[in-house]
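Weekly puzzle thread! Below is a chain. First person to post its structure in C-alpha cell form gets bragging rights.
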Amino acid sequence: MSANDSQPQPSGPSRQPSPQGPAPDPLQTLLLVLVVVLVLGATGYLCVAHPSLTAPIAAVGGVGAALATAIGIVLANRRH
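Winning reply:
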C-alpha cells in the first residue's frame, strides 16, 4: 500500500446540520416559569382553603389544558 491509496472522498456537497431557530429569550423563559408557578400555587391554595371550589377549578384546568395543547399543536405546525 502506498501513501496515495486512501479512501475516496465524497465529491458531493457535504451535509451541514440545519440551523435551528433563534434561541428563546432567557427573560421570557423566566417570566413564563414564574407565571406558571404563581398560577399553580394560587390554584393549590384555593383548593386547600376552599374545598368547595375544587371541582370547578379542576374543570377549568381540564379545559385550559386542552386549549393549551391545541394552541401548541397549531403553533408547532405553523413553523414547519
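Puzzle host: Confirmed. Bonus trivia for everyone else. The chain has a mean pLDDT of 81.
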